[in-house]
Each structure stands twice: as structure tokens, then as C-alpha cells.
Amino acid sequence: MSDLAHSPSPDSVLLAIGGRSPRKAAMLAGRLGHGAYAVPPREAATGRDAVLLAVAWDGVESMLQSAGASDGVLAGTPLIDPTNAVTHGVGALLVEHGESAARWIAGLAPGARVVKAFHLFPADHWTSPSDGGRTPVTVAMCGDDAAALHVVGRLVRDVGGVPATLGTLDRVRQLEEVAGFVIGLAFAGIDPASAVPHIPSHTPSHTPSHIPSNGRRAGSPGQA
Asked: What is the Cα–Cα distance from 188 to 195, expressed in whole angstroms?
């Protein structure tokens, strides 16, 4: 679990790392540098500008318990969910039909402003140094709270991405299915990008003729 709080400098943030293993949290903080520091999970979740739930799916519930989520510690805080509740190497969703990982997480953290984001690209995409020539990737997001989406959108830009809001958490399962699709093809040795048509951007009033439409362009991403 990683958490952000403003530092005295308006152009920087303080990064707190909380984990089930204090030793591993300290090692990660040291590896990240730039003022990152390790703290207990509950401290990491308290009074932060945003919290990133950066754990494997099978560790989500225990981490949230350690952070005091059921006690309302995360109430009002943007809680970023980058988890993938999928079968390893297959991509099939592990949550029940019609449900979503993000909604389940929201139930474990009452009052938290859950935003699904950062789940489609591997962690090293964001931690590897950029040579300045890398094309920015789009980070699709879902969330119910506009202020939380704005905060997460700023973080996406800070790490060199382009935020795009797909919709509220009512659409988040669709976003989670995309991760399963990507993972399934990747483990089969197929480039997922080769299975998706390249469609140039259009304004909402100019829907491409080859996309079925009910009169409006469903799912048109908007900047957060």
C-alpha cells in the first residue's frame, strides 16, 4: 500500500509505504528513493491525499484490515485500485458474475472514494526511467467521485500518462474485463494491441461509421 501526502514544496509529494512486512516496505521505500519512507499500514492510510492499494489480489482484504479500513480510516480518501482479480495466465475474472473487484474493495473500505486505475500496465512501466521519447499511454479510470478522479488524473499526468475516465463504478467491471483480455492474450504469446483496431480520435458529434451506435458514442473517454 502506497500513500501520498503533500510536502512543504508545492511541486512535490511525500510517499509513504505501508506493508504487511515492515522489512519489505522499508526495502521498497529505499529503492524508490525521493523521500519515500516506510510506516505501519494504518499510519500509511491515515490523513493522506490519496492511497494506492498496490497489493496482489489475494492480499487485498488483509491489507485493508491492517490499515483500519473497516473503521473508516479511508473515509473521504481517494483509494486507487490497480488490482487484477483474475486467474493467473488465463485472465478469467475471479469475482462473481455481475460484480467487480472495485465494488468489493469499496465495501471493505466504507466511505473511501474508490477509483479503478493503473491496472492495465505492469508496475515497471511507471518505475522505469523514461528517455523522454516514450509515447504517453492512456490510463483508463472509473470512479463515482469527481474530486477523487481529479486527484488520480493529476497523479497519472505526474507519471507521464494521459488520464481518461470511462465512467462511474457502474462500468468498472467492463474495465476489469479488459485487463483479463490483455492478460489472457499476453500469456498466449499474442500482442493484445494487435487484437484491437486503431481508431483515430473523434469528437462526440463525429462517431466513426464503422462503430455501432445508439445515437451517442458510448464510452467516449473524457479527460479527468
From this structure: 13
- The sign of the torsion formed by the CA atoms of 146, 152, 157, 162 equals negative
C-alpha cell belonging to residue 16: 509513504
In angstroms, how far is CA 144 from the centroid of its own chain?
14
Own/partner contacts of 95-103, CB < 8 Å, gap of 24 or more, are 95/173, 95/176, 98/173, 99/173, 100/169, 100/172, 100/173, 100/176, 101/57, 101/60, 101/172, 101/176, 102/142, 102/169, 102/172, 102/176, 103/169, 103/172
Radius of gyration (Cα) for the chain, nearest Å? 18
Residues in the chain: 224
List of residues 6+ apart from 68 with CB closer than 8 A: 41, 42, 45, 46, 74
pLDDT at 207: 41
* Chain-centroid distance, C-alpha 42: 20
The residue that leads in pLDDT, 72 or 202, is: 72
What is d(CA 40, CA 79) in angstroms, rounded to the nearest whole number?
Answer: 17
Q: What pTM value is reported for the model?
A: 0.83
Mean pLDDT of 197-209: 62
173 sits in which H/E element: helix 172-187
